[in-house]
Amino acid sequence: MADPVLLHEVSANGVALLTLNRPQAMNALSRELLDALARAVDALGADPAVRVIILTGAGRAFCAGLDLKELGAGAADIGRSTVAGRGDPVGAMGRLTKPVIGAINGAAVTGGFELALACDVLIASTQARFADTHARVGLASGWGLSQKLSRAVGIYRAREISLGGRWVSAEQAAAWGFVNRVVPPEQLLDTARALAADMLLAQPGMLERYKAVIDDGFALAFGDGMALEAQRAREFNATVSAAEIEQRREGVRERNRGG
Q1: What pTM, to 2 d.p., does this model score?
Q2: CA-to-CA distance for 20 and 104, rounded, in angstroms?
Q3: Domain 6-199 listed as CATH 3.30.420.40
Q4: Based on CB atoms within 10 Å of each CB, which residue in 69, 72, 123, 159 is the most buried?
Q5: Nearest CA among 156, 34, 33 for reference residue 90
Q6: d(Cα 89, Cα 115) in Å, to the nearest integer?
Q7: Residue 95 has pLDDT above 60, yes or no
Q8: pLDDT given at position 96
Q9: In terms of DSSP H, where are the helices of 154-241?
Q10: Helix/strand/coil percentages in the chain, nearest 5
């Protein structure tokens, strides 16, 4: 029996680990993997027991992008499937209200780069590196790379990366601001799990609520984002009592003393 293209486990504390599992193909996104990942993300989004998701790859690569061998062999609709409906993991991640930590273990290329940028936080191994080869392959980006990257690193650096097609090391990615931190390979998953554990200290529902206001506000002009935050703060804070705040504040003090 062939190995599953996607490994999926959920810990007792509500952290899900998704592992792209086509190491022999650098975790290239075949139609099967596209569908499996999209379905898994949607299922985890609907599972109340899951609060944080970690996404990584098996072997030496995070993801080499679309499976060009499959694409060239006649699966001509694979490009269309990745931007709408069935088989669209990035679309599923965009619908997700829960945070996704990308644990980037190796090369993230083109569609794999876009998959990484769909995560909320990126922790990279020193073996990770990034490249956008859309222009060289002759495919258009459809998962947001042309827009997200320039907002993360600035338009001049984005042009260098995408028009030049050059590799960007994990350390350079961190210096340019689209990777949060870089760690040795053997520490990658432990670091991602430690961050997930910190996120789990949030009050129920707050991870989803705070992620939403950050993301929704970022898509707006600054003044409109400030107005959005104020509106949502008024609506939500009106539902919280002073006694609840004091109880939670005491819990934070207790954790700090324990640390």
Answers
A1: 0.90
A2: 11
A3: no
A4: 123
A5: 34
A6: 8
A7: yes
A8: 96
A9: 155-164, 170-176, 188-199, 206-218, 222-237
A10: 50, 15, 30
